[in-house]
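Researcher: I'd like a candidate sequence for this fold, 108 residues long. If you have to choose between options at a position, lean toward the conservative one.
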């Protein structure tokens, strides 16, 4: 589901928002290959972390795990939305990396 920038800013930290912004059109095309690979790795790390937190929150809600904070999690929709935003950004970056690889193969 598409989200506007205000919702993204609410869900993401400043660093995560910067990573996501770098995966959009003009910025993504201008990244060197090394930075693109670094961006993909950082996005994958953040996405996996958000997924792990959402999984832990679901276990807390079911009563299968103790609370990680002062109170057990009551909802995990925000964490899942963050994971989805990061996954979409990762997909854009991977697509650009694949496009560059195909372009290099055609050049050879």
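Model: Candidate sequence:
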């Amino acid at each position: 589901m598409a989200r506007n920038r205000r919702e993204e800013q609410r869900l993401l930290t400043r660093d995560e928002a910067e990573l996501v912004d770098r995966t959009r059109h003009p910025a993504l095309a201008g990244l060197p290959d090394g930075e693109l690979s670094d961006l993909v790795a950082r996005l994958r790390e953040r996405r996996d972390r958000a997924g792990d937190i959402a999984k832990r929150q679901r276990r807390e809600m079911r009563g299968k795990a103790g609370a990680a904070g002062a109170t057990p999690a009551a909802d995990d929709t925000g964490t899942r939305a963050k994971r989805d935003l990061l996954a979409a950004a990762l997909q854009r970056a991977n697509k650009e990396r694949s496009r560059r690889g195909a372009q290099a193969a055609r050049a050879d």
